[in-house]
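Supplementary Methods, section 5.1.

A reviewer requested that the exact input to the structure prediction be made available. We therefore reproduce it here, unchanged from the version used in the analyses.
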Amino acid sequence: MMAGEKSDTEIFVKEKLASGLANGSEEASDHAHLVPQNEVTKKKKKKSKSKKKKEPVQTDPPSIPVIELFPSGEFPEGEIQQYKDDNLWRTTSEEKRELERLEKPMYNAVRQAAEVHRQVRKYMKGILKPGMLMTDLCETLENTVRKLISENGLQAGIAFPTGCSLNGVAAHWTPNSGDKTVLQYDDVMKLDFGTHVDGHIIDCAFTVAFNPMFDPLLEAAREATNMGIKESGIDVRLCDVGAAIQEVMESYEVEINGKVFQVKSIRNLNGHSIGQYQIHAGKSVPIVKGGEQTKMEEGEFFAIETFGSTGKGYVREDLECSHYMKNFDVGHIPLRLPRAKQLLATINKNFSTLAFCRRYLDRLGETKYLMALKNLCDAGIVQPYPPLCDIKGSYVSQFEHTILLRPTCKEVISRGDDY
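The structure derived from this sequence is encoded token-by-token as follows.
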């Protein structure tokens, strides 16, 4: 072969290499030699194995615990609202940020409870329809909460009985066993349920009405609650929040069957502060003007809830009781009835100071307990919470969110895409 001439082999290799570059094949990636076909196949197989693992997706109906849907263990924060001008400095304060870093595990626990609430209410809104037995409705909701929150004794579970109060009943009604009440097209139902992780409670509610005639009544409570949230903050007086809520609520009218009603704030119902394992922690957030000059404080949780009514705007206790709760500060009180002692042991083990209802006692296998329960109430150990009702023929709507007054900002923990 003459100097400067190329061998047949070299020419073949260069032609193949050029062809590979034109086609974008793997042969082009080896600069000086050809790659055997079986090597290309192996490389392709290796690439397909390294595909990213899919994140789990919630089923329908929901059945996967939310902790499995967030493998990082970090749950989404709620809606963030900045404080008003005199507290804006908190946003950039390094000291306040450090306080939040220290509370991160607690924040994450309550955010987990909030995520469960969002997913459960989304599912329930999709299946609610006239003709449902109220007992079935409650048990479906509660069993879904138990699955999604990975119910575990007093560490995680339902925070209080499912309130599904109808029409003029504003709060604290849930069916007792054997109740045959059925949800109707013209009902206005307040669906108020709670979740908790480590006793950190999400108290959150919305109203369901199938008949669009009631839409302004629902909007009044929803917008009044949003105003209450907006006005809340560190060093804000509770009475000022109430005045702002009432102004929004009573700007609404609703026409029901040809008669126009001004929507009224129910003056003897309130929002409230929330403590660990303590749904009512001592401070009340009024929904009318007047009331306490007490201020909200840094680090506090509040349930901001409003009730709009076409009745008198005043509730009283009525109907058969279903809700009960052990008094938070009760010390040791001697009991004579063995059956009352036994029932108290069940309450301490399963609910501690969280609210419960008769259906929950039935579920635990308790029977013939009404006399013992009355004994615990008479002794002041357990407090009964009968349904709260406005006048007959009236309609009440309710919306509620749990907020946290963080050192740097206000977090509406239970906020969702729905309300």
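The chain has eleven helices and 18 strands. These observations are discussed further in the main text.
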